[in-house]
Design goal:
By secondary structure, this protein is of the alpha+beta class. The protein contains 20 helices and 17 strands. The strands form 5 sheets. It has a 6-stranded mixed beta sheet. It has a 4-stranded antiparallel beta sheet with strand order 12-15-13-14. Strand 10, helix 10 and strand 11 form a beta-alpha-beta unit. The longest helix has 27 residues. The structure holds a DNA duplex (9 and 11 nucleotides).
Length: about 625
DNA sequence: AAATACACA
DNA sequence: GGTGTGTATTT
């Protein structure tokens, strides 16, 4: 092979073997293989994040000029500071007062809040943490808009939303397409290739990086020469095909970011490298203390050692927490370079499971894939910290209702995109003072109209459970969450799941026999104990307009008053509507997924009050 | 089912 | 540094 690896490796003299995979030999087989995944030597990953995202969202919402200094405040503190505002020395640590002192013409926007009595979040005067609840909805919406632009611009790129303002993009496929388009001779193995498809590729072309972004320097010399716009060729560096791939990736990212800017008005920064970890790391190249934003950085493999070695490892994702602390303490060091002398054996001894992963990370290796997480959320949380702890249980109910209202709205919105979204469980967390928070959870029914009442009812029940063995109520934080959110599968399978959950905790739905065309519902029927008296029919049953059958409450409690019966009936009506909804879905679509192989669970549940009555259970 | 850890604006 | 979210792992 005529690879110039010697000169490149020479630069890392001390520990060259630590970075021995920076210039792998790339063959025709590599180029032509489609599914090499994380071992693809031409892998190109980008991390794109929005600059001062919350501040940018408010700036766009208010149609302000990008140069205005703007901050987003939450009560008296700041949660986002635009880059123009940072020029005044404002940081997120500042209180709003100090920020305004530093910049008198600062635009300060308080984050939207739910206010008691108001159905939707808004931007009110005189927000007060005692009466209002923060809403981050705008940012979630804008975030998903950005993701959509990514998808639309890069139909072949794999996209993983990493946080509200960040996404990883696997550019390997779109890059390969462009590469073959531009260098068609790579697509066919030459007749005279010594090892056929396993022969190395011919030498790559030189790259003009001018418009593609900031190149992370290869060496200290490179760092100064870069400022003079000297070409890399002169410093004895030789381009690799992976560099070419990176440069095409940079081209694509520049396009994507331009689209985001044009369509939505957000500036973004990006990092482009051979894996997720490095992409993320280099996205913030020189960002912390400078105002340089709206740009992308490119980390060539050969630049990895020089870039990584002086890096404080606790800044690396996943090493910011306890693990990073432990490493720092154990070896009394701070930067990546210091840890390179630790052998894998030794690390495994001290850190077990995590060792290999960390060992590789320090050497610029990261085998994690970019996995499309379908923007669909797995959980949805609404939470409220209470500066003045609550002591009255009624206040608990109040906040739960507020949180429930938010969840109801958010779920409704989410269902506009994916109508079958179904939170399987509901969880209530509560924290007392400085104690760690305690939680209770319960299954959440499949319901088409998830109303505030249904959520609040469930939340209140959990609240009671949580408070029952508590002597003094002084709650400082309340969190209500949906977890296990999934798109219910349509088709027979859904009907199946629908009934299964019913069976577990609801009385069976009453259906007329004439409608009983579904083999799944055998045995579901004919257990209405004693039909109510004629004159009471309207209080305990109703006739469905769709199937014209009379649906009755199964077990009417004598102690229920009229109001309770009405509620129970309303819920039964909803359940029945849900049944039709589920049936419509099943009928309207072809089964997409194969039947799950999960066995139908046969557990039985006894102590719970059944069905609707559980919502009325006292204590 | 409940608690803990980590990340990020 | 505090509040509000989210995910994944451990107990």
């Amino acid at each position: 092979m005529n690879s110039p690896s010697k000169s490149a490796k020479g630069k890392g003299k001390t520990m060259s073997q630590d970075y021995d995979d920076l210039r792998p030999i790339i063959t025709y087989r590599h180029i032509l293989s489609q599914n090499l995944g994380v071992r693809d030597p031409l892998r190109v990953i980008a991390l794109c994040d929005s600059d001062a995202f919350y501040a940018a969202c408010e700036r766009v919402r208010l149609a302000l000029d990008p140069t205005v200094p703007i901050v987003v405040q939450q009560w008296e503190s700041l949660i986002a500071v635009s880059y123009p505002a940072r020029k005044y020395g404002i940081s997120r640590m500042d209180k709003i007062k100090d920020a305004k002192k530093k910049c008198p013409n600062l635009v300060a926007v308080h984050v939207a809040t739910y206010k008691e009595g108001e159905k939707e979040p808004g931007y009110w005067d005189n927000v007060d943490t005692r009466t209002h609840k923060v809403s981050l909805d705008l940012y979630r919406r804008e975030s998903s808009k950005i993701i959509n632009v990514f998808k639309q611009t890069l139909p072949n790129g794999e996209i993983e939303k990493a946080s509200i303002d960040e996404a990883f993009i696997d550019l390997t496929r779109p890059v390969r397409e462009k590469l073959l388009e531009r260098y068609p001779h790579l697509a066919t193995v030459p007749e005279d290739a010594p090892d056929g498809a396993d022969s190395p590729l011919p030498p790559p072309p030189l790259i003009n990086w001018d418009q593609l972004g900031v190149l992370i320097p290869l060496t200290p010399q490179d760092e100064v020469s870069a400022q003079d716009e000297l070409s890399n060729v002169e410093s004895g560096y030789s381009t690799t095909w992976h560099d070419v791939a990176l440069s095409i990736g940079a081209e694509l990212m520049a396009q994507v970011r331009e689209e985001v800017s044009k369509q939505l008005g957000y500036t973004t920064s990006a990092g482009i490298a051979r894996n997720k970890f490095l992409a993320k790391l280099c996205a913030s190249y020189k960002k912390p203390n400078s105002q340089v934003i709206d740009r992308q950085s490119i980390l060539r493999n050969d630049a990895i050692p020089y870039y990584l070695r002086p890096m404080p490892f606790q800044k690396i994702r996943f090493l910011g927490g306890k693990l990073g602390d432990a490493l720092a303490k154990e070896y009394d060091v701070l930067i990546v370079g210091d840890l390179l002398t630790i052998s894998l054996d030794e690390m495994q001894h001290k850190f077990g499971e995590n060792a290999l992963w960390v060992y590789e990370l320090l050497r610029g290796i990261d085998r994690n894939e970019v996995k499309e997480k379908s923007t669909l959320f797995k959980s949805m949380l609404a939470s409220k910290n209470l500066p003045k702890p609550i002591t009255d249980p009624a206040d608990g109910q109040h906040w739960i209702r507020v949180l429930a209202a938010e969840l109801a709205l958010r779920l409704k919105d989410a269902r506009e995109e994916v109508p079958t979204l179904w939170p399987k469980t509901i969880v209530l967390h509560a924290r007392k003072g400085y104690e760690t928070s305690r939680s209770k959870q319960a299954a959440f029914p499949f319901t088409k109209n998830v109303t505030v009442d249904v959520i609040a009812l469930a939340g209140n029940k959990l609240w009671k459970e949580l408070m029952k063995d508590v002597t003094s109520i002084n709650i400082t934080s309340v969190q209500l969450a949906f977890t296990g959110i999934e798109a219910a599968e349509t088709g027979q399978q859904m009907i199946h799941g629908f009934f299964k959950t019913r069976d577990a905790q609801h009385p069976p739905l009453k259906r007329p026999r004439s409608n009983s065309d579904d083999p799944l519902d055998k045995g579901v029927e004919s257990e209405t104990p004693n039909p109510p008296e004629r004159q009471e029919l309207s209080l305990t049953s109703f006739v469905c307009e769709r199937c014209h059958s009379r649906i009755a409450l199964g077990d009417v409690r004598a102690e229920w008053n009229e109001e309770q019966r009405a509620s129970a009936l309303a819920m039964l009506r909803q359940e029945h509507e849900d049944f039709h909804f589920a049936q419509d879905l099943a009928g309207a679509s072809h089964p997409i997924k194969p039947r799950s192989s999960k066995p139908v669970s046969t557990r039985s549940r006894e102590p719970e009050p059944k069905g609707i009555t559980k919502f009325f259970s006292k204590k």
